[in-house]
Amino acid sequence: MLTTLLAVAFAESGLEVHFDGQTPIYSTEFAVDDRLGAMFDRRRVTGTGYFGSADWPKDGSICGYDDQFSGRPCSQCPNRATVWERYVGITKGDKVYACGTEPQWADGRLCGMMTTCKQCKTGYGTYWTKKAMTACGDEPKDWDDGHLCGLGTTCGNCKNKATYWTAKAMTACGSEPTGTWSDGKLCGIGTTCRLCKNGHSYWTRKAMTACGQEPKGDWNDGRLCGLGTTCTNCKNKATYWTSKALTACGSEPRNWADGKLCGLGTTCNNCKNKATYWSSKVMTACGSEPCWGRGTFCGIGTTCNKCCKGQSWSYCK
Fold first, then answer.
1. Domain span at residue 76?
2. In the chain, count of helices (H) and strands (E)?
3. Which of 82, 113, 138, 160 gets the most CB atoms within 10 Å of its CB?
4. Among candidates 98, 93, 140, which has minimal Cα distance to 119?
5. What is the pLDDT of residues 219-267, one digit of tens each?
6. Cα–Cα distance for residue pair 281/269, rounded to 1 Å
7. Residue 188 included in any domain
8. How far apart are the first and last CA of the chain?
């Protein structure tokens, strides 16, 4: 746990950390102050690390004056010790000395205005929108076209001037490309339809405007349609289908089997065989009614005429 705490604290400041497992190279007491000092209490911890690295002293090694770090006097540095901004907050005190001169900070490194930003190569820091914080140098304008951004804020990072993109319903870098939407994609006239590859038209099957021209003649027989509207999409001329009680593409097939109830002049037109009155169903049905078998109850002078081998009183023989 101690090792982890030290490693996190040092890494945040750019300080090299070296731990030697169970046998410390050097041990000293020092204070670790997280960069988010408001969230964590300053703690006194004892540990091993860069303070006692085997190649002490060298440029970048933390040292002290007036017993700030016992055993690590700045007088032993190969080069004159100076205050290193990157170590501020790692140790107790406002100033942290290390051997040599701290290298200047590259663009993009977080820094504090009027404090650590003076360590930047550029000599100044600016507010970086993508970091939401101050950093060294000027933020590069490297956002590609299509990257969402906010006018007056993040759009300043765009390579090309930002515009409103209808497909994104928001501002984005660059200009929205046109002619990229495929046929059939719903669009709005005067807005998104300008993105269509092949213009736009009203599509009856979608009941809305869409890119391109609606295909004709690709609806199969039996598909419901509206005469004068969607029926124009049928492969074959649309007709009224009694089985659907609606208009549909093509002609309704005459494939109703014998015995299926139907209405003369209407649904009976769908029968494979001519429809007749069926006494057993008391209704018209497709085909001819078969004769009645032995033992079937019948009416003398009426339904008994349907018996295959005559009748005996009210039953078929």
1. 2-103
2. 1, 17
3. 82
4. 98
5. 899 999 988 888 988 989 999 988 888 999 999 888 889 999 998 988 8
6. 19
7. no
8. 102
